[in-house]
């Protein structure tokens, strides 16, 4: 692939940037497109994974066949097998008619399995079979059917970790990952962030009929040194916000700063949450806490975990260890609140155990988290006019989790 050819693909699919890793990812996508090999696209949330399966489909011999994108995280566990593989009439309560399923429909085409790490284990087994032999069986049927489908999968979670935790089949991982394509995070793309900003600024200028915002040199520097946990999606969102809110079209670092959330290294207790690596039950809870960083409660938890950590590393259970203030992170005014959230372990036990146990109990007892969570979900849904995909993205949880929470809280 020559540079010019890659440029053409970028133009066609609206991809901005000249970063070498990004160019290489596009190059691999085009090279692999004419084959039927499975491709696994990995990269943090918001890096732009969604264009890649489309490139692969369009540059393959399947381009006149169906392209079906499935968000594996958004389909409830109870219906996912039937959506993917179809079902027979009467296969389960409510299965009035027969259903073909995506694997049947996409015969001769491509299926994009987005958030593939969210597939339930029984579905993973069915998927492995169809990948290995092209065979599948509809729910409630005993007849083996054949299909010719190319699979492109994507994930923003670490599948190796999912394998280690028994949530993802290793054999399926290797089968999906025949050709890996890694999309680099925005923070590693250098000057691309400025190009992207310019593109988004001009798009929003057109959309809202106003002159495009421009960055001063110090603001550009700030864009370049920011860590972009939400990657291109985050950049796009803040560019839109600034375009709408700021009347002065020249954006200085001082203005820009207001739109960039504090960088995360100051919050050791919650670091790692961007990897969505925690259990789905807890993820929304931590997310809510994280987003209410200003809230005293949040700081209390932070203080607590730091204290617990200290205790763990020092191996001390004495009260005095808890009370040691952490001057680098905790504003002095909050130290007064610390004792209210700290309870002594009933009996001395190994330090790590105390750590876990204490944190869990604390979370359950001292906050009315259900209310907070419910309210956050309600607001996110309202903001996105009920669009679950967007609301889930805002809350940084999977659509499946959101779906379940909506049911749980009766927010339908
Ligand atoms: N290089 C790029 N040029 C232009 N727009 C981009 C680029 N990369 C991403 N975007 C835009 O950023 C947004 C997020 O991209 P996308 O939805 O593909 O992210 P993702 O990697 O699928 O994230 P997630 O894992 O959260 O689903 C989209 O609006 C997309 O159009
Ligand atoms: Mg995506």
Write structural notes for this entry.
- The protein has 412 residues and is α/β, with parallel strands linked by helices.
- The chain has three domains: 3-184, Rossmann fold (3-Layer(aba) Sandwich); 188-257, Helicase, Ruva Protein, domain 3 (Orthogonal Bundle); 281-409, no CATH class.
- 51% of the residues lie in helices and 8% in strands.
- It has 21 helices and nine strands.
- It has helices at 3-13, 20-32, 51-58, 77-85, 102-105, 121-133, 159-164, 170-176, 192-208, 217-225, 231-245, 253-257, 280-291, 296-314, 319-323, 332-335, 338-341, 351-366, 369-383, 388-395, 399-409, and strands at 39-42, 67-71, 110-114, 135-137, 144-146, 150-155, 179-182, 214-215, 250-251.
- A five-stranded parallel β-sheet has the order 2-3-6-1-7, with helices on one face.
- A hairpin with a 6-residue loop joins β4 (135-137) and β5 (144-146).
- α6 (121-133) packs across α8 (170-176).
- The longest helix is centred in the C-terminal third of the chain and has 19 residues, at 296-314.
- The protein is globular, with a radius of gyration of 24 Å.
- It starts with a helix and ends with a helix.
- The model is unreliable at 266-279 and 316-366 (pLDDT under 50).
- Bound molecules: adenosine-5'-triphosphate and magnesium ion (MG).
- Adenosine-5'-triphosphate is lined by residues 14-17, 43, 45-50, 156, 196, 232-233, 236.
């Amino acid at each position: 692939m020559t540079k010019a050819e890659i440029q053409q693909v970028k133009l066609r699919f609206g991809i901005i940037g000249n970063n070498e890793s990004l160019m290489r990812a596009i190059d691999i996508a085009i090279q692999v497109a004419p084959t039927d090999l499975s491709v696994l696209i990995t990269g943090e949330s918001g890096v732009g994974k969604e264009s890649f399966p489309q490139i692969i489909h369009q540059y393959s011999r399947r381009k006149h066949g169906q392209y079906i994108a499935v968000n594996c995280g958004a389909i409830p566990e109870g219906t996912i097998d039937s959506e993917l593989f179809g079902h027979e009439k009467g296969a389960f309560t409510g299965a009035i008619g027969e259903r073909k399923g995506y694997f049947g429909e996409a015969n001769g085409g491509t299926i994009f399995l987005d958030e593939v790490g969210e597939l339930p284990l029984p579905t993973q087994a069915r998927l492995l079979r169809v990948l290995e032999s092209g065979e599948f069986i509809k729910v409630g049927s005993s007849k083996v059917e054949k299909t010719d489908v190319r699979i492109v999968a994507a994930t923003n979670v670490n599948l190796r970790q999912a394998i280690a935790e028994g949530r993802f089949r290793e054999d399926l991982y290797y089968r999906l990952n025949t050709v890996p394509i890694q999309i680099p995070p925005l923070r590693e793309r250098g000057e691309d962030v400025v190009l992207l900003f310019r593109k988004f600024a001009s798009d929003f200028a057109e959309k809202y009929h106003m002159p495009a915002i421009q960055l001063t040199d110090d603001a550009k520097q700030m864009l370049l040194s920011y860590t972009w946990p939400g990657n291109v999606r985050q950049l796009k969102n803040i560019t839109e916000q600034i375009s709408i809110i700021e009347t002065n079209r020249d954006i200085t670092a001082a203005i820009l700063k207001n739109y960039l959330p504090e960088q995360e290294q100051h919050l050791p207790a919650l670091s790692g949450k961007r990897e969505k690596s925690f259990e789905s039950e807890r993820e929304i809870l931590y997310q809510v806490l994280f987003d209410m960083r200003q809230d005293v409660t949040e700081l209390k938890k932070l203080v607590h975990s730091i204290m617990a950590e200290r205790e763990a590393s020092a191996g001390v259970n004495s009260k005095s260890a808890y009370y040691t203030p952490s001057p680098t992170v905790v504003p002095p005014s909050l130290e007064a609140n610390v004792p209210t959230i700290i309870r002594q372990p009933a009996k001395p036990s190994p330090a790590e155990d105390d750590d876990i146990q204490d944190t869990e109990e604390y979370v359950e007892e001292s906050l009315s988290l259900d209310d907070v969570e419910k309210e956050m979900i309600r607001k996110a849904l309202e903001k996105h006019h009920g669009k679950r995909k967007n609301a889930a993205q805002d809350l940084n949880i999977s659509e499946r989790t959101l779906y379940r929470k909506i049911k749980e809280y009766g927010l339908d």
